[in-house]
Design goal:
about 230 residues, alpha/beta, Rossmann fold, 6-stranded mixed sheet, 4-stranded antiparallel sheet, 10 strands, about 35% helix
């Protein structure tokens, strides 16, 4: 790390996607460099297709960049380049250190809404009793109808799935939280619930990097803001 205050340092990150059907190459992001201090919240705005999500997916390693480094100060592994880390290391970091909130909930088969959150808590090493209490707190915070707590989320509306997704990520209080349009399909009341938790996590020291279309939601939350255009940050 160039600076010991940084939790994350991105240097020269580039990613293109190959379209095999028409043999075209789509430029997602080019030469992205960004430092994220411990406890800081950085927001990135930009039009759809500008490459914002590609940065987050590179950090979470769901997309592997072609060029660049993503240095992360892991509690378990020390300084580690997420681009070259082993699958075992990445799985550990995802489970225990880096959270990801996307617009879409990846449903676990035969897992109820309550169990989704309980499992997230127990992944952090807490016991079932603690997990049960925290699951109830989060479900109540997001005003998820009590009739839905023990239902499989594949029947939920888009907004209900997103609220559950956010609850499961935030209950773990990760060291680094990645937010990919976390308020995309939420009503204003639900947005305020998300904002309350983000503010709480920030006070507790969670470092966050988020991408947003909702500029009003971002106001007063972010320490720094960047705009993404045609794969470049400004």
């Amino acid at each position: 790390m160039k600076n010991k205050e940084n939790l994350l340092e991105i240097e020269g990150l580039s990613k293109n996607f190959q379209m095999h059907l028409n043999k075209k190459e789509i430029q997602a992001c080019q030469n992205i460099s960004l430092n994220l201090k411990k406890g800081e919240f950085i927001g990135i705005t930009g039009r759809s297709g500008s490459g914002k999500s590609t940065i987050l997916k590179g950090i979470y390693r769901t997309n592997l960049p072609q060029k660049g480094t993503i240095l992360y100060q892991s509690e378990r592994f020390g300084e580690i380049d997420l681009c070259t880390a082993s699958e075992r290391q990445i799985l550990w970091i995802r489970k225990h250190e880096i959270g990801y909130v996307s617009q879409f909930l990846h449903i676990m088969p035969r897992t109820t809404a309550r169990e989704v959150i309980e499992n997230a808590v127990m992944e952090m090493g807490e016991d079932r009793e603690s997990a049960q209490k925290k699951a109830i707190q989060m479900l109540e915070h997001f005003d998820l109808d009590k009739a839905l707590w023990d239902v499989y989320p594949n029947t939920f509306s888009g907004g209900e799935k997103l609220r559950l997704n956010i609850a499961a990520a935030m209950v773990k209080k990760p060291r680094l939280l990645l937010l990919d349009e976390p308020t995309a399909s939420l009503d204003n009341a639900s947005k305020e619930k998300v904002r309350d938790l983000i503010e709480q996590l920030k006070k507790e020291g969670t470092t966050m990097l988020g991408i947003f279309h909702d500029l009003e939601f971002m106001e007063g939350l972010c320490d720094r803001e960047f705009n993404m255009q045609k794969g470049m940050l400004s």
